[in-house]
Design goal:
Two copies of one chain form a homodimer. In chain A, β2 and β3 form a beta hairpin. The first copy, chain A, has helices at 18-39, 47-53, 63-70, 74-87, 108-132, 134-151, 154-162, and strands at 61-62, 90-94, 102-106. The first copy, chain A, has 171 residues and is mostly helical. In chain A, α5 (108-132) packs across α6 (134-151). Chain A is built from seven helices and three strands; from the N terminus they run ααβααββααα. Residues 1-14 and 161-171 of chain A have low confidence and may be disordered. Helices cover 60% and strands 7% of the residues of chain A. Chains A and B meet through α1, α3, α5, α6 and α7 of A and α1, α3, α5, α6 and α7 of B. The first copy, chain A, binds a DNA duplex (30 and 30 nucleotides) through residues 2, 4, 46-48, 62-64, 72-76, 78-80, 95, 98-102.
DNA sequence: AGAAATAGTACGAATCCCTGACTACCCGCT
DNA sequence: AGCGGGTAGTCAGGGATTCGTACTATTTCT
């Protein structure tokens, strides 16, 4: 409760790298989301579980799809899906199209969580809009979207992963 | 090497939440940085170590300061600093002002890493500027800076942490 | 001097995520 | 038919990150 002097962080106004700023904003959003979820009685979901849950398509997804979309290995995805199954947020059903595969589908409990998370996100985005103004918020979203398409799209990833990485320091 | 169909991620053009976009951009930057560091012979630093290293002030920082600035517990900070000490990036020296405390200072090897990381960041930011245009990139930086000051500043944190969190879902 | 706060450490545990190795199944080709 | 390469998913094991609780040493306030 008692406070230490406020030298903690870099001085306001100084320039932290975009990298650190992105991390900070993401972390702020994440902690708001999971704080609210915890308050709402869904304290058993973790951020990692959330990141795989988020990429499950409405009609169900295969584990391999989930792993690729969430950028983790199949094992990690399987581990996290196991937890989500045990906690009742998703179910595994056989994939009628392929006996090797199973579809992971969102269970009722999972559906119940979605609007709660969406509401928090909407709330935080509203706060941010109040801080930035509608136009800058819109531009922020667009800019991030452009970067996402350039860096986090299957073709973009292939581009980076296969490059021998010779002249990374282009400066 | 062989490729799975490209259904992986959300369709380009659809709107992922700002949260996911922030995460994606941060992750892209981070993997570039640590990829390059690894190539440059500094493969023993990890992202977590980087996040504490980043907040060490030029004249040295106390562990508690580092912990607060990096938003981790003292134990975590101490653990990561231990690793950085073992790897030779920082040193611990007694704090002349307080016999309980020690100052963590950047060692020569640590100083050597800084320009490498900075170059990568500059390179990635240049790529992003090429994608977005100078103006949008500048606006992105400003917007993130505003959000940072509002959410990741000591006073801002106190504001959020102490709120009883009743009406989180303001939507 | 004595009480309260602060700097840091020790230990134990949970979470997250990866590599390597394996089984079960699908599909195209002979 | 049926074989072989590729895909879906699991098992086993390990490393990294982070936290909570509990403790010692030192400073600071009264």
């Amino acid at each position: 409760m008692t406070q230490t002097p406020d030298i903690t962080t870099t001085q306001p106004g100084s320039q932290a790298s975009v990298s650190a700023l992105l991390f900070s904003a993401y972390r702020a959003m994440e902690s708001r989301i999971f704080g609210a979820l915890s308050q709402a009685g869904y304290g058993d979901v973790t951020p990692a579980q959330g990141r795989v849950f988020r990429v499950i398509r409405p009609d169900g997804s295969r584990l391999t799809e989930i792993a690729q979309a969430a950028r983790v290995t199949k094992q990690t995805a399987g581990f996290l899906v196991d937890q989500l199954v045990r906690a009742g947020y998703v179910v595994r059903v056989p994939d009628p199209a392929d006996a090797r595969a199973r579809l992971i589908k969102i269970a009722p409990k999972g559906s119940a969580v979605i609007p709660i998370g969406a509401a928090v996100v909407a709330g935080v985005e509203a706060e941010w809009t109040a801080l930035l103004g509608k136009e800058r918020m819109q531009m922020l979203r667009e800019a991030l979207q452009v970067l996402w398409e350039a860096t986090d799209t299957p073709s973009a990833l292939r581009r980076h992963q296969e490059a021998p990485v010779d002249e990374v320091v282009v400066a």
